[in-house]
Amino acid sequence: MADILSYLDWRGDLSFKERPFNDVDNLILSELAYLDMTGIVPGPGEEGIMALRDVYPAYVQMGYDQSCMPNDPKYLASAAARSQRFGEIRLWRYVDEIDRERQIQFAAVTCFLPDGSIYVAYRGTDHSLVGWREDFNTSFMNETPGQFLAASYLNDVMAVTQGPVMVGGHSKGGNLAVYAAAFCDVAYRGRISIVYSNDGPGFNEKITETPEYRAVLPKVQLTIPESSVIGIIMDNKHASRIVRCSSSNWVEQHNPYSWQVNYQGFELAEAQSVSSRFLNSALDQWISSLTDEEKVIFVNAVFDSMEASGAATLEDLIEDKRASYNAIMKAAKELDPEVQKSVVETLKKLGRAGTDVALGDAKKAFEQFRETYLRPLKGLSRTALPEKHEKDASV
Fold this sequence. Notes:
The protein has about 400 residues and is an alpha/beta fold. It has 2 domains: about 5-270, 3-Layer(aba) Sandwich (Rossmann fold); about 290-370, no CATH class.
């Protein structure tokens, strides 16, 4: 099965002039946004711009190690940097900000393609707890600090550049791309040619009901894997395309290295998996059943307890599971009784949502069976059935 690394083997020697930019190129650039370019690619206010061909050797020299990430960008960056297609892409204005107090995990980079086009790439959620916490905050906040930074970043880039701009990202990066395109300055919105959300989560209704969000929808291209979990969270009003994956595991399917490609683009599937549709309905029902206050209490209780263990990343939690678990449970027991009660009730609502969806699916299946098989039989009159022959009395 072919993935984005295979694509670089096939198309890496073809320029964008020979083969125009496509969906897989978008995914590759959105994944390159995960690469740690601190001290390599110039940031805001700094002079210079760097070709990807030169960025990767500097990355190796800096000794960065991102192997803890499921979608470690090292191998993709190495192959892309060596290729004719991506090697000359110039990278500029790299930002990477993590602020635990303000609950921000934000990174972005601007890519200048050899054909003159621009791709603004936003990084998705990394392995930090603050990054995951920020994801949950989108369910109740009108604007997260990261979303504000995303729109500001796009404004700053477009203020000093010209021509059409593509915006994109993977996971939370896709959410940031859509938000930035919708809420950047009005004067710049016309320059945005397309917005790529690669399995990016949706938004709460406060956002989806705004005219700015609705106006950008025709430009949004959402791509999700067959068993998507992240890309189906909250409202994703834009129509989605479903890509085939090499793994059936829904966690692994969020990793773009499992997405299947061909020479022209993604290998598309006909529909979401049954489990993904079920989870979609259950999560929608659960989130809509909660008030903003309940969401705030739940998110803060969960992440405050995890951070009380001293962990800053998912790896910290996994490194010493027993110690982390004990610390989390201790912190949870020390929560205010009313907070504990609210958290328990929130989890119960999730269970009820799953049960309601399962029962609803069972009811739909029975109704379909009844309409297809039982109702036609009911319409048959008794006279239409073969008559029984009475037993001959002489026998």
